[in-house]
Write a structure and sequence with these properties.
With 327 residues, the protein is mainly alpha-helical. It has helices spanning 16-29, 41-44, 51-68, 85-94, 99-103, 106-114, 120-134, 148-164, 211-219, 237-250, 254-260, 266-291, 296-323, and strands at 3-8, 34-39, 75-79, 140-143, 174-177. The protein folds into two domains: 3-181 and 295-323, Rossmann fold, CATH 3.40.50; 201-289, Tyrosyl-Transfer RNA Synthetase. Bound molecules: tryptophanyl-5'AMP.
Length: 327
């Protein structure tokens, strides 16, 4: 059975973009792949975090995974920082990665531009992500479009290390990017990705938004003056984004969505999008409320930590020996 792995950062509130780009894909793939999903908490501290909120968000994200349909029987679920080998492997890989290669990462360029001072961790972050992936011999990494460059870096690192030490230490992973849902855009500025860290929450649907808020945000999404529900991302980014959301959440093709709404005005179409988003998110929220205080979460996380630590140790040991870090 092929193996997949993905992770999300426990920063702020999880968005509809995260759900569509990563979690929903995992729920579908768990039926046919051996699946690993984790909380990328060490990635979160590359930017300042309030300790109490971070700790809350870590547990929160596990409850969200389960509420969204990630099945603990079909997935290994764990917290990155509870498995010590991610950081250890990352250090070795950092020492094997040219400095300039990391400077080319678009996400680093964007995030470092936003702040005058930023941590060294923000720069080396993609190597930690490469370690997350390479530790487990995964075949595919399901993510949104924005993480593709990082998965490609993981491939480059793996190829370089295998070549340098003339040994197949790492499996070469492939990104698995869902077609249209690979990038969900901001509802107010549809030329920007829908992001947890957006300055304007009106453009972002959070998984925990209440029904009224979801409807309000969708009804006031930026569109255009043409009044035609047609998918044309270059000229009609706002309406195309809503079509994408509708298409992914209803499992209908873009063409089928265009056909369904060919006689609708934007108000009618937006109402249908809002109905659909509400029908997906409200049941997730109900499940989440039942799960958040459940002891079940701890058992799942303990099992995930133990299982992945054993697996990761083997890979770490192999790498260490290849590099010469042994007596
Ligand atoms: P993060 O936490 O920023 O995002 C989590 C996942 O959500 C996807 N995503 C989106 N997809 C579609 N439209 C959007 N607007 C949107 N916004 C976010 C992301 O592509 C991602 O799949 N570095 C990663 C976390 C990570 C990871 C890993 C992922 C750490 N190690 C190993 C895979 C494998 C990140 O910051 O994701």
């Amino acid at each position: 059975m092929k193996r997949i792995l993905t992770g999300l950062q426990p920063t702020g509130c999880i968005t509809l973009g995260n759900y569509i780009g990563a979690i929903k894909q995992m729920v579908e793939y768990q039926e046919k792949y051996e699946s690993f999903i984790f909380v990328a908490d060490m990635h979160a501290i590359t930017v300042p975090q309030d300790p109490e909120s971070l700790s809350f968000n870590i547990r929160n994200l596990i409850a969200i995974y389960l509420a969204c349909g990630i099945d603990p029987k079909k997935n290994t679920i764990f917290i990155q920082s509870e498995n010590l080998y991610h950081a250890n492997v990352s250090w070795i890989l950092e020492c094997l990665t040219p400095y300039g290669e990391l400077g080319r990462m678009t996400q680093f360029k964007d995030k470092s531009k936003k702040n005058k001072s930023f941590s060294a961790g923000l720069y080396t972050y993609p190597v930690l992500m490469a370690s997350d992936i390479l530790l487990y011999d995964v075949d595919y990494v399901p993510t949104g479009q924005d993480q593709k460059q990082h998965v490609e870096l993981a491939r480059n690192i793996a190829e370089r290390v295998n070549k340098k030490y003339k040994e197949n230490i790492f499996k070469i992973p492939e990104p698995l990017i869902g077609k249209h849902g690979a990038k969900i855009y901001d509802l107010v500025n549809p030329d920007k990705k829908m992001s947890k860290s957006s300055d304007n929450p009106k453009g972002v649907i959070y998984l925990m938004d209440d029904e009224k808020t979801i409807r309000k945000k969708i009804m006031s999404a930026t569109t255009d003056s043409e009044m035609k529900v047609i998918y044309d991302p270059d000229n009609k980014p706002g309406i195309s984004n809503l079509i994408t959301i509708y298409s992914v959440l209803s499992n209908k093709t873009i063409k089928a969505v265009e056909k369904k709404f060919k006689d609708s005005n934007y108000g009618e179409f937006k109402r249908a999008v809002a109905d659909l988003v509400v029908s997906v998110l409200i049941p997730i929220q109900e499940k989440y409320n039942k799960l958040i205080d459940s002891k079940k979460l701890d058992k799942i996380l303990d099992d995930g930590r133990d299982k992945t630590s054993l697996m990761a140790f083997e890979k770490y040991d192999k790498l260490k020996k290849a590099v010469g870090l042994h007596r």
